[in-house]
């Protein structure tokens, strides 16, 4: 079954440095790092203390609220350091990898098992971490039952890794994951694929395939949810990144937690943007320097895409959910009369002496400069042009700022995730931090309402 | 490198101090800051608030320059030194250095006072409250000279600007927080504080007030009539301006409001750049035409006759209302202020329509001061949050209904 979804509101930001479709094996990283902050709102209870030896797939820590929910090591090796922040919060768990990898064997899983057995298996094997829920955009609660499950197989964000390419040949794993997970819901397993794509997801059974087209955020899972079956109060949906279905599928089929992932290295600072086969938590230094960026360059490294990714240092690590490392120039320089001279080399959705509307197919080299200062909300109507959800973006942002829980709920807070507000943040002339505002709002609701 | 580096050093030196906002305001005028995105999106669109405001100013400059020529033209025409224009918009009688020079020297002080007093207060508040100087006043400061009469005493302007900026904007928290359009607050203050100056037939043409005083003192020169078209219509005087005069703007009025042609071009520019809301502009025009047409029908039906006070304005052809007074200027530059207008797209239609509708209603029914657009916009500024509330409630109800359908 296939339904077409066409998005009109949005903005394609075309950047220089899209990854070429050539695959390299990344230099094997000596160190891996897992950061509990990737699992937003989870408080970790550490099991693997410093000096402990772990196999790939062995538990590093569990969720303090639910001991059954494990978070596992992507590699086998020795836990060499547990970095702590204020109040002994765990910032990162650093693992020195073995030369020879050994895996915990969870055993081949019976795909016909019922939902509860599957749930226990996913929780114990660490694969539950890949299942996120909305409302709140956090790791799904261990006992939650979704009304539907959504996966986006179409990456529309700037420079995004092409999922058709990174998932190629993984049909068996994807099918296994879909078969197992679709038992959790009666509302269907919804997958979006690009309209003209050749996605390995397109042929899956037990799932509803939606062909999407239109500008970014057409590939955001939030857009898919709003088009197919928007979340109402009291309902929960699950979202899973397409590349993580592969890890879940492989675990079910072989019993191994294989953290391997094909990721893109992209951005205008990269000499030869291309794809790498690497593992969750590996050092980005293993990929970015060879035919990549200058060692003493003034660049910004981002684990994730340029709109919603996390800033990392050059000695940082690939985060748990990302399939791209973006590197763009750091824009920490002044620009003479930047506010009034005609602009040809930056993207804008207005025409206020900005000329990107003349060249819709031009690729831009954007830096991390703010292009202005933070202000109060002033301009209206420009967010709506890039925001396809049936929600009033400025009103919901303001309700988050003044923390009116009733209003946040009424305006649709249960439906959104920070990444849905990435484009409104990009076009905001007042340079307001939309995603941060939404995250803070979701955290407040999670705390007060749960 | 020199200037950039020096300014950077000063900025770092004053960072976090009371004077930082004042310095930053001047610094960012020259250089867009070196701030980079911290979290959230790592890239940002090219526009900031300065660029947005600058676009509006660019749309206003033609009106300002035209106003300078028109100030001289109206004066010399009234004293009988030149002939009325004959050959369209580019008539040689109008675009003379003599006309421009009189207007320029008359309007320059008004412009300087508007920016000087307004920005002075902005800087003061920024330093006291420790926030950055906001760009809103760049537009307000430009609007003010365009919506006052040419012969306004400068001290009145000082008082009005100070009032408008403090009460109209700063007490609410600055640009983005205000309820009323600051430029119109200034204009309304002038009107209600000094009504004898701001209405009548003397203040609109340079020299008319002066001449009136001379006549009272015994001079036997002819009085200068500086009556605006609206003023004339309100008293059912015959109007000797052609539609072309009104459209091109060769008529007395506030400095920048007369040329409907240039305002139209400015409006198209704002719509093209996506800075001004076409929804508000279009719906205001529709609202004004509807109300004007209703009045025309009332006259046609014979309910209002020539003996009525309202006859002159009611009998004005409905589309002429767009050409006279401050209607076009208000619709294009004032009603579209994003902070004080409705903020939802549906709300903008309602808001704009009511502005046009109420403007003409006030214009016709208030012969003492026939310019309704100022009051109509201020009134709708107050109602805009209410309009938005009901528009947003529509979305909220749809969401609730969707949830109920599910559970049912």
UniProtKB/TrEMBL annotation, chain A:
UniProt KW keywords: Ion transport, NAD, Sodium, Sodium transport, Translocase, Transport, Ubiquinone
Domain NqrA N-terminal barrel-sandwich hybrid: residue ranges: 5-98
Name this polypeptide is given: Na(+)-translocating NADH-quinone reductase subunit A
Sequence ranges assigned to domain Na(+)-translocating NADH-quinone reductase subunit A C-terminal in this UniProt record: 262-312
Job description of the protein: NQR complex catalyzes the reduction of ubiquinone-1 to ubiquinol by two successive reactions, coupled with the transport of Na(+) ions from the cytoplasm to the periplasm. NqrA to NqrE are probably involved in the second step, the conversion of ubisemiquinone to ubiquinol.
Entry EC number(s): 7.2.1.1
Domain NqrA second alpha/beta positions: 114-257
InterPro entries found in the cross-reference section: NqrA, NQRA_2nd, NqrA_C_domain, NQRA_N
Organism: Winogradskyella marina
Pfam families, A to Z: NQRA_2nd, NQRA_N, NQRA_SLBB
Homology family: Belongs to the NqrA family.
PANTHER family cross-referenced by the UniProt entry: NA(+)-TRANSLOCATING NADH-QUINONE REDUCTASE SUBUNIT A
TrEMBL record, chain B:
Compartments where located: Cell membrane
Pfam families on file: NQR2_RnfD_RnfE (PF03116)
Keywords of this entry: Cell inner membrane, Cell membrane, Flavoprotein, FMN, Ion transport, Membrane, NAD, Phosphoprotein, Sodium, Sodium transport, Translocase, Transmembrane, Transmembrane helix, Transport, Ubiquinone
Membrane topology per record: Multi-pass membrane protein
Top EC group: translocase
EC number(s) stated in the UniProt entry for this protein: 7.2.1.1
Reactions mediated catalytically: a ubiquinone + n Na(+)(in) + NADH + H(+) = a ubiquinol + n Na(+)(out) + NAD(+)
Cofactor(s) recorded in Swiss-Prot or TrEMBL: FMN
Modified residues (FMN phosphoryl threonine): 228
Residues that span the membrane, as ranges: 52-69, 107-126, 146-167, 246-272, 284-306, 318-336, 348-366, 372-392
Family: Belongs to the NqrB/RnfD family.
Record function comment: NQR complex catalyzes the reduction of ubiquinone-1 to ubiquinol by two successive reactions, coupled with the transport of Na(+) ions from the cytoplasm to the periplasm. NqrA to NqrE are probably involved in the second step, the conversion of ubisemiquinone to ubiquinol.
Subunit: Composed of six subunits; NqrA, NqrB, NqrC, NqrD, NqrE and NqrF.
Protein name, as recorded: Na(+)-translocating NADH-quinone reductase subunit B
Organism: Winogradskyella marina
């Amino acid at each position: 079954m296939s339904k077409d979804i066409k998005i009109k509101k949005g903005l394609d930001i075309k950047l220089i440095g899209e990854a070429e479709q050539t695959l390299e094996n990344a230099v094997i990283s000596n160190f891996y790092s897992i950061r509990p902050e990737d699992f937003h709102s989870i408080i970790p209870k550490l099991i693997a203390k410093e000096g402990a030896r772990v196999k790939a797939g062995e538990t590093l820590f569990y969720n303090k609220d639910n001991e059954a929910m494990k978070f596992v090591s992507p590699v086998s090796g020795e836990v060499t350091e547990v970095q702590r922040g204020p109040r002994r919060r765990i910032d990162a768990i650093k693992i020195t990898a073995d030369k020879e990898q050994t895996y915990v064997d969870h055993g081949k899983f019976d795909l016909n098992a019922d939902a509860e057995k599957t749930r226990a298996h996913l929780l114990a094997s660490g694969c539950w971490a890949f299942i996120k829920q909305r409302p709140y955009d956090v790791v799904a609660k261990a006992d939650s039952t979704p009304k539907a499950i959504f996966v986006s197989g179409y990456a529309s964000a700037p420079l995004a890794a092409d999922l058709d390419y990174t998932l190629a040949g993984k049909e068996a794993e994807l099918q296994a994951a879909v078969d197992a997970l679709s038992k959790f819901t009666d509302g269907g397993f919804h997958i979006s694929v690009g309209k003209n794509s050749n996605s390995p997801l397109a042929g899956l059974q037990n799932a509803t395939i939606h062909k999407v087209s239109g500008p970014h955020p057409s590939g955001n899972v939030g857009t898919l949810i709003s088009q197919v079956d928007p979340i109402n109060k009291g309902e929960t949906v699950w979202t899973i990144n397409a590349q993580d279905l592969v890890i879940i599928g492989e675990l079910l089929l072989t019993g191994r937690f294989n953290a391997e992932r094909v990721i893109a290295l992209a951005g205008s600072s990269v000499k030869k943007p291309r794809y790498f086969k690497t593992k969750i938590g590996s050092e980005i230094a293993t990929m970015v320097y060879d035919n990549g960026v200058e060692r003493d360059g003034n660049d910004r490294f981002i684990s994730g895409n340029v709109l919603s990714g996390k800033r990392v240092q050059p000695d940082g690590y690939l985060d748990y959910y990302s399939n791209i490392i973006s590197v763009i120039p750091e824009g920490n320089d002044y620009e003479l009369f930047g506010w009034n001279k005609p602009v040809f080399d930056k993207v804008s959705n207005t025409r206020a002496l900005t000329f990107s509307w003349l060249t819709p197919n031009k690729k831009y080299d954007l830096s991390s400069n703010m292009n202005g200062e933070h202000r109060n909300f002033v301009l209206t109507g420009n967010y709506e042009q890039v925001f396809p959800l049936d929600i009033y973006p400025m009103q919901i942002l303001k309700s988050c700022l003044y923390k009116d829980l009733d209003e946040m709920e009424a305006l649709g807070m249960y439906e959104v995730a920070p990444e849905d507000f990435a484009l409104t943040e990009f076009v905001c002339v007042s340079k307001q931090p939309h995603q941060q505002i939404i995250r803070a709002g979701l955290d407040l609701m999670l705390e007060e309402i749960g | 490198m020199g200037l950039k580096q020096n300014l950077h050093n000063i900025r770092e030196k004053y960072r976090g101090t009371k004077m930082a906002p004042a310095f930053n305001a001047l610094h960012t005028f020259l250089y867009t800051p070196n701030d980079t995105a911290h979290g959230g999106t790592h890239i940002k669109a090219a526009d900031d608030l300065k660029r947005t405001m600058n676009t509006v100013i660019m749309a206003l400059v033609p009106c300002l320059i035209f106003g300078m020529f028109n100030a001289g033209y109206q004066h010399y025409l009234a004293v009988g030194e030149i002939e009325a224009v004959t050959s369209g918009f580019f008539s040689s009688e109008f675009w003379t250095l003599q006309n421009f020079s009189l207007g320029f020297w008359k309007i320059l002080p008004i412009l300087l006072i508007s920016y000087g007093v307004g920005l002075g207060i902005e800087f003061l508040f920024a330093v006291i409250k420790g926030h950055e100087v906001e760009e809103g006043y760049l537009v307000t400061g430009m609007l003010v000279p365009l919506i006052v009469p040419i012969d306004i005493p400068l001290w009145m302007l000082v008082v009005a600007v100070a009032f408008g900026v403090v009460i109209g904007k700063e007490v609410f928290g600055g640009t983005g927080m205000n309820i009323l359009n600051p430029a119109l607050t200034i204009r309304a203050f002038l009107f209600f504080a000094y009504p004898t100056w701001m209405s009548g037939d003397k203040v609109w043409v340079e020299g008319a007030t002066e001449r009136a005083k001379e006549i009272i003192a015994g001079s036997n020169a002819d009085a200068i009539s500086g009556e605006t078209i609206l003023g004339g219509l309100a008293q059912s005087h015959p109007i000797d301006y052609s539609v072309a005069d009104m459209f091109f703007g060769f008529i007395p009025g506030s400095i920048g409001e007369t040329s409907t042609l240039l305002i139209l071009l400015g409006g198209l520019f704002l719509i093209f750049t996506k800075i001004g809301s076409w929804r508000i502009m279009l719906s205001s025009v529709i609202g004004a035409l509807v109300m004007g047409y209703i009045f025309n029908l009332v006259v046609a039906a014979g309910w209002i006759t020539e003996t009525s006070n309202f006859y002159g304005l009611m009998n004005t052809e409905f589309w002429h209302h767009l050409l006279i007074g401050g209607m076009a200027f208000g619709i294009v530059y004032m009603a579209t202020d994003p902070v004080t207008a409705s903020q939802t797209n549906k709300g903008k239609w309602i808001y704009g329509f009511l502005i046009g509708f109420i403007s003409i209603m006030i214009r016709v029914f208030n012969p003492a001061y026939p310019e309704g657009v100022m009051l109509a916009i201020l009134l709708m500024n107050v109602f805009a949050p209410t309009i938005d509330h009901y528009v947003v409630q529509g979305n909220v109800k749809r969401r609730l209904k969707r949830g109920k359908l599910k559970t049912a």
